[in-house]
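User: Please fill in residues for this 100-position structure.
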């Protein structure tokens, strides 16, 4: 699963929080229980794990060092959340986990 994060106005942590909040609102607006709602649930769970466990100071340093005009990142989520990583341009970053 891939979650697009918009970094045009925010750091990686804030962009992740905003995406998480948007998905929560979207989830509760959906009246039916369909495939989209299940996908949204999975994205919410992944972002929650990411927000609670990633070392964002380290990630911020990687993103601020990049002088790229590309302002999008993809959070790539595998079945095991501790294996998730971020793709930014042609760079793949593996977060350091607080409990790891």
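Assistant: Residues filled in for all 100 positions:
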């Amino acid at each position: 699963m891939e979650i697009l994060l918009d970094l045009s106005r925010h750091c990686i942590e804030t962009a992740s929080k905003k995406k998480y909040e948007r998905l929560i609102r979207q989830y509760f607006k959906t009246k039916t229980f369909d495939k989209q709602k299940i996908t949204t649930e999975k994205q919410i769970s992944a972002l929650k794990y990411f927000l609670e466990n990633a070392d964002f100071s380290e990630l911020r340093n990687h993103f601020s060092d990049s002088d790229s005009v590309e302002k999008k990142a993809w959070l790539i989520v595998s079945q095991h959340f501790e294996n998730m990583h971020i793709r930014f341009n042609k760079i793949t970053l593996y977060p350091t986990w607080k409990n790891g």
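For context: The beta strands are 2-6, 72-76, 85-88, 91-93.
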